[in-house]
Amino acid sequence: MNFGRTDTSIMGRWWWTVDRWTIAALFLLAGIGLLLTMAASPAVADRIGADSFHFIRRQFIFLAPAMVVMVGVSLLTPKQVRRLGVVGFGCCLFLLLAVLFVGPEVKGATRWINVAGISIQPSEFTKPTFAVISAWMFAESRLNPGFPGKSIATGLFLLTALLLLRQPDVGQTLIIASVWGGQFFLAGLPMILVLGLVVLGVVGGVGAYFVFDHVQSRVDRFLDPTGGDAYQVMTALNAFKNGGMFGRGPGEGRVKLVLPDAHTDFILAVAGEEFGIALCLVVVALFAFIVLRGFSRLMKEENLFVVLATAGLLVQFGLQAIVNMASTLRLMPTKGMTLPFISYGGSSMLALALGMGMVLALTRTRYGSEEVER
């Protein structure tokens, strides 16, 4: 693109106000994701009897609209982002409720629903939209002391958590809880209540262990790999060992031939074996750059809604990346969560594009009359 500073068109103003470094990092992540999908998915497709390029084609199909969504949403004003969040969250609540009644059960969980012939995971879209509407409620509560924004945000969180746990999806619930808790803290939560939430979180985690069998199984395998089926994690660790610093070379990896989730949850293991620890460090650096740069752009921000919404979206993005990478490296119990913009997955890709488009929109430089659009 080549826009002059005097260009007053929509795209011209966007080009000179958006964070182009963050966009470049996100596109680079998506490019690495395509490379790793091409490396990991043919073997998975062959094992399930599909065409070797089945997942690659689908990833290309989802990536193009995802990038369009991200750029399109980044053109919005903060007020328009807020409206999009409210409408989107309302749709997500409806779908979360509907999935419990009409969604198919897969591996003991009901998380997907078919809409117009497309399979959608509503929880993925709930995360960014919840971050926006929760930020709005907390901001209004701070600006208008008589407005029950904190109570509304808490009620929406509890409702969302209830619907997610009914699926059940403990991992997504924990991310939603982290977003809500982080925004509550930034909005001025007293320290005694912060400690109370920490204790409540610990109690909730212990409770999940005893209530949900799949959580108990994953924790037990993490604590004692020899006592249960820890095949995928141990195989992933061996892949990093075999890859060394610079990898065995593109197409030379073996982990993708045996790992069922090599193209999704354990795609970092494929990167480690074929391209080495060097590429893994590049991926980690890109995630860190995006999150830290996003927070750095908030340092001079005076609008509380923008600060809370952007912080919530960045926490969600960064935490999802940490959970995926830590699970692959056996630093925490396994959790079926994609690596943002890298793992295969249509719903995840589109939802992440929506969330990061909101981040780009909220962190754009705003001048003069544009401040009113907050």
UniProtKB/TrEMBL annotation:
Cellular-component GO terms for this entry: cell division site; plasma membrane
Pathway(s) per entry: Cell wall biogenesis; peptidoglycan biosynthesis
Catalytically driven reaction(s): [GlcNAc-(1->4)-Mur2Ac(oyl-L-Ala-gamma-D-Glu-L-Lys-D-Ala-D-Ala)](n)-di-trans,octa-cis-undecaprenyl diphosphate + beta-D-GlcNAc-(1->4)-Mur2Ac(oyl-L-Ala-gamma-D-Glu-L-Lys-D-Ala-D-Ala)-di-trans,octa-cis-undecaprenyl diphosphate = [GlcNAc-(1->4)-Mur2Ac(oyl-L-Ala-gamma-D-Glu-L-Lys-D-Ala-D-Ala)](n+1)-di-trans,octa-cis-undecaprenyl diphosphate + di-trans,octa-cis-undecaprenyl diphosphate + H(+)
Keyword Transmembrane helix: yes
Spans through the membrane: 55-77, 84-102, 147-165, 185-212, 266-292, 304-322, 342-362
InterPro entries named in the record: Cell_cycle_FtsW-rel_CS, FtsW, FtsW/RodA
Topology in the lipid bilayer: Multi-pass membrane protein
GO MF annotation terms: lipid-linked peptidoglycan transporter activity; peptidoglycan glycosyltransferase activity
EC number: 2.4.99.28
Cellular localization per UniProt: Cell membrane
GO biological process assignments: cell division; cell wall organization; peptidoglycan biosynthetic process; regulation of cell shape
Keywords, alphabetical: Cell cycle, Cell division, Cell membrane, Cell shape, Cell wall biogenesis/degradation, Glycosyltransferase, Membrane, Peptidoglycan synthesis, Transferase, Transmembrane, Transmembrane helix
Name of the top EC class for this enzyme: transferase
Membership in a protein family: Belongs to the SEDS family. FtsW subfamily.
NCBIfam families named among the record's database cross-references: ftsW (TIGR02614)
Name the record gives this protein: Probable peptidoglycan glycosyltransferase FtsW
Species this protein is from: Magnetospirillum aberrantis SpK
